[in-house]
Design brief:
With 723 residues, the protein is mainly alpha-helical. Among the domains are: 222 residues, Serine Threonine Protein Phosphatase 5, Tetratricopeptide repeat (Alpha Horseshoe); 60 residues, no CATH class. Helices cover 59% and strands 1% of the residues. The strands form two sheets. It has a two-stranded antiparallel sheet with strand order 1-2. It has a two-stranded antiparallel sheet with strand order 3-4. A hairpin with a 5-residue loop joins strand 3 and strand 4. Helix 20 runs antiparallel to helix 21 and helix 23 packs parallel to helix 25.
Length: 723
């Protein structure tokens, strides 16, 4: 695990260097620079919303300094990073240049902008704090650490860096300074103490209490960590033993436990001595009395017995905790990259996180049935050694039951911050408990880490609509469309939202706006035109307006078969007596358009079917049929091939005279292509097509099943004359 020690720095490529100065990181060209973030993300405090508010990441205006102009290449690198904010290398190039120049203003400006976009890079929060401290702005350095911990409360390294900063800047002779350090240490173990790799944080807490001479407090901290499954769980028990053996029990144990064990051991000693004296009395010479032992004297033998009793009690806790560690060890060992990086994770790592979450949630269900077996309860309570256990309230129990699951989710969302599936899974877990907490995670995901992933934004909008907040749903979709302009799926979703809200006029306006703005993109223009025409026809009951929309679209895209087909369907769905001429006009227009031959045949067949179904004279049917036969001959096919499109060339055989004839197979129904799953919409990532609202570029497909023409036509029977 790439975890820096408390006073170490992290270079731009993730390598640890022993330096407190802001040295230039080595950022290689491809592959991308290794940017690590030690386990940390928004920790979950039961009383607070899940995760920080993204607004809290915004920096305060930088202090004005007297350094003069910015370095020569700063503006060029700054522009490159802002023109393409998703290019991680551009940012690291900018940060490297600023560090090399040693220019405070440019470094501050670059770090502020970078950390807004990549707040999980804890090493740069440390660099930023060190920068402010070197120029004498200790308060500003402290602010930077606090902002970083709001973004990644699980970062053990950043907590240690913050505590070391306070230890180096506070006057420890003041009575309030130790109180503040202890308060920060408590906040640290509350936020990150359940992390599997939090051992260094616990060790820092214990050693600091020892330095302050508070041996009982050190014992209490050790008691707490003995109940936490961590990577170095056994070393904590060894340190507890060492701590107990190096001091008198009275100095390290709480008064209650010490008096209890002291009395217990004394009674045990008395019983042993009584039994021993009876044996010695039999052998003692007559007249010799037993040597008296002064009452109230604590012998070394008594102290050793007390130590043995203390370890006997802790050994059960240690054994239980060791069992919890063993359960988690294979998951933790399989996680090879627990920090943030823009490079993709391999599938094995993703499966490991999913499996780990599955297991932890299963354990939660078991613990819920028997809360007394929860190994994590002590982390939020005083040590049992320091004070008698108190009955927690129902609210406290409910908050503690899922605490470890939330911590694991937050750890996962550091390594997998760029994967929508884990954010969605966390939201699904939280929504059953708190809509506000689920909303906070949506906000964090969409506004910071997945700003350019449309699918999760649309899930967020659906979430808000489902919970009755249409205003927020509209805001989410509008913001997404501004960030990703021209994405058809977003505009369609906005129109659908307004339609469901009963705002048909607004839905129509959004589609008309999209039609007007897409005239330079014929395919997209046709797509929006069809959507608008269907809205006007099906919901607006306005076939005239729908017809106008499709006709105008055909003027721009006369070769778009979907426009022709939708216009034909519009006319066919009307009054058959009144629309006969309009149907034939549609067919004629399609046959004159630059369409594929098989498409023209399909339109001709559709016109023939309409004539057969609704014409009031056999002459008109035969007239249309003759035109259809002429079209088949012009396009080079045979009537049977066109009408029974599933004829296989391999079924043809040769006669003696060499002419091709059909193999002796029974007549089959003509083949109509079955609609296949559509491809992604233009300009959208694949993830945007999987969920609700994933409208695809169906209008680019050559199949026609989606238009409802599943019935086939066979015109070789009945009264048609032979050809």
């Amino acid at each position: 695990m790439a975890a820096a020690e408390g006073c170490e720095e992290m270079s731009g490529n993730g390598e640890l260097v022993e330096s407190s100065a802001m040295e230039a990181p080595e950022v290689p060209a491809p592959p991308l620079p290794e940017m690590t973030e030690e386990n940390g993300s928004a920790a979950v405090v039961p009383e607070a919303p899940v995760g920080p508010d993204p607004a809290s990441f915004s920096m305060q205006p930088a202090a004005v300094d007297e350094e003069g102009e910015l370095p020569a290449d700063f503006e060029r690198l700054w522009k490159a990073a802002h023109d393409n904010p998703q290019d991680f290398t551009s940012w690291t190039d900018l940060l490297q240049y600023c560090e090399q120049e040693g220019h405070v203003t440019s470094s501050r400006r670059a770090l502020e902008a970078f950390l807004v976009r990549y707040p999980l890079c804890y090493g740069y929060w440390k660099k930023f704090a060190d920068l402010e401290r070197r120029v004498g702005l200790n308060d500003k350095a402290e602010e930077v650490c606090i902002q970083g911990l709001q973004a990644i409360p699980l970062s053990v390294d950043l907590w240690i860096h913050y505590i070391n900063l306070l230890l180096g800047t506070l006057d420890m002779n003041l009575p309030e300074s130790p109180k503040r350090i202890r308060s920060v240490l408590e906040d640290a173990v509350a936020a990150a103490g359940l992390d599997f790799h939090s051992d260094r944080l616990w060790d820092l807490y214990v050693e600091w209490e020892k330095e302050q001479g508070n041996m009982k407090n050190a014992t209490a901290v050790l008691d707490r960590v003995l109940r936490v499954p961590t990577q170095l769980y056994n070393t904590h028990y060894d340190k507890f033993k060492e701590h107990l053996n190096n001091h008198e029990p009275k100095e390290v144990l709480s008064p209650e436990e010490y008096e209890e064990l002291r009395e217990l051991c004394r009674q045990s000693q008395k019983a042993e001595r009584a039994e021993q004296s009876q044996e010695e009395e039999k052998e003692r010479p007559p007249g010799e009395e037993e040597p008296a032992t002064p009452e109230g004297t604590d012998t070394e033998e008594l102290m050793q017995k007390i130590r043995e009793q203390v370890l006997l009690r802790r050994d059960k806790v240690y054994q239980d905790n060791e069992g919890e560690v063993r359960k988690r060890w294979h998951f933790e060992d399989a996680i090879k990259r627990p920090y943030f990086h823009v490079k993709p994770l391999d599938r094995l790592q993703l499966r490991t996180w999913h499996s780990y979450l599955d297991w932890e949630i299963t354990e939660l269900n078991k613990d819920t049935k028997d809360p007394s077996q929860d190994p994590n309860q002590a982390i939020t309570e005083e040590s049992e050694v320091m004070a008698p256990p108190q009955e927690p309230s129902e609210d406290t129990i409910a908050a503690q039951d899922d605490h470890r699951v939330r911590i694991l989710f937050e750890r996962c969302l550091i390594a997998c911050a760029l994967y929508e599936e884990f954010w969605s899974r966390y939201i699904q877990y939280l929504e059953a408990q708190s809509v506000d907490e689920a909303r906070a995670v949506y906000k964090r995901a969409c506004e910071i880490h997945l700003a350019y992933k449309p699918n999760i934004h649309m899930h967020w909008a659906t979430f808000e609509e489902r919970h009755g907040d249409l205003t927020e749903a509209r805001r989410v979709l509008e913001a997404l469309e501004k960030k990703l302009p021209g994405l058809a799926v977003v505009r369609i979703r906005r129109a659908a939202l307004e339609r469901r809200a009963g705002q048909l006029d607004q839905s129509e306006a959004l589609l008309r706006e999209a039609v007007a703005e897409s005239k330079e993109k014929p395919t997209l223009h046709a797509f929006y035109s069809i959507k608008l025409a269907r809205l006007l026809l099906k919901l607006g009951r306005d076939p005239s307006s729908a017809r106008s929309v499709l006709q105008e679209a055909l003027e721009i895209s006369p070769d778009n078969d979907k426009l022709h087909m939708n216009l034909l369907e519009l006319e066919v769905s009307g009054d058959p007596w009144a629309s006969a001429s309009a149907v034939q006009e549609c067919v004629t227009r399609a046959l004159a358009a630059p369409l594929e031959p098989h498409t023209k045949i399909l339109f001709s067949q559709r016109g023939l079917q309409f004539a057969e179904d609704y014409s009031n004279s056999i002459q008109s049917v035969l007239s249309v049929y003759e035109e259809h036969q002429k079209l088949l001959k012009e396009l080079g096919g045979t009537k049977r091939e066109a009408e029974n499109g599933d004829e296989d060339p391999e079924k043809l055989s040769k006669t003696d005279d060499g002419s091709a004839v059909s193999a002796q197979v029974p007549p089959t129904m003509p083949h109509v292509p079955i609609t296949t799953p559509p491809p992604p919409v233009m300009g959208a990532d694949m993830s945007a097509q999987t969920g609700y609202g994933g409208y695809s570029s169906w209008y680019q497909q050559p199949q026609y099943g989606s238009y409802g023409y599943q019935n086939t036509w066979n015109y070789n029977q009945g009264y048609y004359p032979p050809s």
